[in-house]
Fold this protein.
Amino acid sequence: MKSTLTDKIFDYIKDKIISGQWPANKKIPGEVELSEELGVSRLSLRTAIQKSNILGLTETMVGDGTYARDFTMRTYFRALYDSEILSRDFNEINDFRMILQIGSLRLAFEKPNILEGVKEIQSIYAEMEKAAFQKDLERFKEADVRFHQSVCALCDNELMFMLYDAIEHTLNEVTAQNVENSIKKSGTYDNVLHFHKAILDGIKERNIQKCIEAEMESRERSYSYYKKKSKS
C-alpha cells in the first residue's frame, strides 16, 4: 500500500515520541517550525497531528499547542473492556491468559538462561505461601498477579509483554476473582497454590507439558465458577 504524505508525517511524529526525542507531557514543536522542517503544508501537518491525537500519541490544547503523550495500549483495552466492547466473559479471558502464558513459556524454554527470571518467580511463590498461611487475601492476590506477569516476561519478547501489559487490568480482575472463587468453594488456598507450584516446577524443569497440564486442570476448575455467556 502506497504511503500518503500524511502517513509519512504521522510516522515522523510517532518515531519522535516512541524514541523519546519528544518526551511525554512536553510540548512538541509548533506547526510553523514543523512544516518548515519537513517541507510540508500546515494542512497536511494538521491532518497528521489529528491522526496522532486520535491514537493517543499526542494531545492538542486549543490556544496552547500539541503535547506528546505517554503512549500505551493499556488505555485502549481498558476502555474497550469497561464499555463491554471487549469480551467480559471470564471463561474466555481465562483461556486467553492461559494461551498467552503457555506461549510465553514455550518461547522462554528455547532461551539458554532464564535463571534470574525463575528466581523471581520462585520468590513470588514464597510470598504467596506466606500470605496464604496468614490468610492475607489481598496480599495473596497481589502476589498472584505478579507471578503471572513474571512468567510472561520470561520469554523476553517485547511485543508479548506489551500485549500482557495492555490487558493487565482485565487479567488482574479475573485472576483475583478466580482466587476468591477457589477459596470460597474449597475453604482453603490449596488449589491455587498447587496450580502455581506446578507451573513453577514445570518452569524449573523446562517441561512445557507439565505447565500445560497444570493450566488445563486450573481451567477446568475455573470454568465451574462462571456461567458461559450465550452468543447473541
